[in-house]
Amino acid sequence: MKRMLQVCSLAGLMALCLVKAAASPVAGTWEGVKDGVKAATIHVRETDGILGGSAIFYIIRDEGSGTHNGAPTPPLAMVGTQWDGHVLRFSVVTSDGRSIAFELRVTGEGKGELVRRPQGGMPEDKVPMVRAR
Fold first, then answer.
1. Which CATH number characterizes residue 114's domain?
2. 29 alpha-carbon distance from chain centroid
């Protein structure tokens, strides 16, 4: 009986060692479309429990012809990430040195909303997001 208890205890400990912590529900690639045009791609990765990643924004500019160009920014590293279980807060630093704060709110299974609060003369902007498969 004692031997059986030892074997069961050892098996339990081995199982605990093999269990990997569940990934954060915000980790992965998120895509956003606004007004029928691709607006953002957010890559969120988790390494040793720390969230980070990058953001690509598809700049919509009127080129003078009435059409918009949708050119992507280079990937911008997330800084100052904070996750409260529902909202990932982060900032990106643009090529001209401006820091812009964002929130990626998880609103449902594979759904979210990217929010840029009013700052630096820019109005609030919201983009619906879906987790890419």
1. 2.40.128
2. 7
